């Protein structure tokens, strides 16, 4: 009986550890220029694809709109805007989708990769990943 309880407890602990190793959840973005928190993005999975929506603005620009965004996103409030679209798991990272920079309105190819349980490397690039830049987002607990 003790062995059953131990195995059950280890299974629960292992499953919690696996859940922590996912890109889904809430992430704090950091401004490249100031180093200060900029927004909270909630990353979700829908039908095997990853999406990220701005759910909170942490600066004084809480009512900012994405005036330079392309297509249907043009003029929409940044809060509530889906900026990460259509990424799929590819080994240890997620790629094959896009990310929109609401400040410039530019859309880039995107790759996400966890750095431990609480850091997410978000790479936006044009063409190949070597031609891009990476931001590190921090998990919100």
TrEMBL record:
InterPro entries the record matches: DUF2147 (IPR019223)
Superkingdom of source: Bacteria
Alphabetical UniProt keywords: Signal
Signal peptide: 1-20
Domain DUF2147 stretches: 25-139
PANTHER family from the UniProt entry: BLL5882 PROTEIN, BLR1215 PROTEIN
Annotated protein name in UniProt: Uncharacterized conserved protein, DUF2147 family
The species this protein was found in: Paenimyroides marinum
């Amino acid at each position: 009986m003790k062995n059953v309880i131990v195995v059950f407890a280890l299974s629960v602990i292992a499953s919690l550890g696996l859940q922590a190793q996912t890109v889904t959840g809430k992430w704090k973005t950091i401004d490249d220029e100031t180093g200060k928190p900029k927004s909270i993005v909630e990353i979700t999975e829908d039908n095997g694809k990853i999406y990220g929506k701005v759910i909170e603005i942490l600066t004084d620009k809480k009512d900012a709109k994405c005036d330079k965004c392309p297509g249907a996103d043009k003029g929409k409030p940044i809060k509530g805007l889906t900026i990460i679209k259509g990424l799929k798991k590819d080994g240890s990272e997620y790629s094959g989708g896009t990310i929109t920079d609401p400040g410039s309105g530019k859309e880039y190819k995107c790759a996400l990769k966890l750095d431990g349980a609480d850091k997410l490397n978000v790479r936006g690039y044009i063409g190949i990943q070597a031609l891009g830049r990476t931001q590190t987002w921090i998990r919100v607990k």
